[in-house]
């Protein structure tokens, strides 16, 4: 005869299975490819794990996984991972094929942070295709955290990077078309084709966080910034504490969307500190979003900001102002999960 404890365990397992199966069925209906069978927060169960923003994070994660599955360091994994969208000639929001500013300059921003609290960044850098790798060298070979503009380009060339024209024919064509009206009106969620079909002129970022087999956390963030921005504009992506923050005792966070609002709230640092206080990754991201909305409720209705976080246990979560934000997850059990983040509105 089964004991009462055994009976209760069976009932709990059955209810849990039904709940997970139902969640998976509803999420799979959101996309022809099928979103993840998980909800917008969860745990990998085991290290290593890598998560990143948007649909292009799937391919980036797979590249990062090549390092992680061999027992490699999270820092090496995130650098290798985000270099994939940086090199993607079809991606006009990150890297070498990014849309230019309103003066026709392609300027790139990136930052990187390791488990020891070391960090490096470049902002408004021209002529160099992989800003994330330059950011890492700023971290490792200089006493500084951030290099900008011509100084960042000069440093990159001195370190052996090839200087090249980044404005592609396709980007130049889009820029010249934009010049006819010169109207600046960013559109939300350009990287999520389901929510923004046909949108061409906007921006978004890849932020990536990884926990390696040793339980150490690193992160990377890279972008070409807002399309047709003012020359010299820099958003949150290369700003440590805004676009990215890692504390190896707690976890890491990254952001995407309108960088000005993230900077004003030191968003990624805030998320990590909220996790330090005991909030789950998803709840920490939600609270950071709510603070942006509380400060500027009217502005928030028309913009997108999303946060993605992971804690020391490998639990992850995301939250955004508007629907449409998604993130990718890769671990030993699941290689190509794409999960819709929850939103305030």
Give the low-pLDDT segments: 1-40, 187-202
- Overall residue-averaged pLDDT value: 86
**Percent in strands:** 15-25%
**So what's the overall shape?**
globular
Taken in chain order, the helices and strands follow as: HEEHHEEHEHHEEEEHHHHEEEEE
Radius of gyration: 20 Å
Secondary-structure content class? alpha+beta
Account of the 3D structure:
- The chain has 345 residues and is of the alpha+beta class.
- 34% of the residues lie in helices and 21% in strands.
- It has 10 helices and 14 strands.
- It has helices at residues 4-28, 57-68, 74-87, 131-141, 149-158, 169-179, 259-264, 267-276, 281-295, 297-300, and strands at 41-43, 49-53, 108-113, 119-125, 146-148, 206-211, 217-223, 244-247, 251-257, 305-311, 315-320, 326-331, 337-340, 342-343.
- Helix 2 packs antiparallel against helix 3 and helix 8 (267-276) packs across helix 9 (281-295).
- The longest helix is centred in the first third of the chain and has 25 residues, at 4-28.
- Residues 1-40 and 187-202 have low confidence and may be disordered.
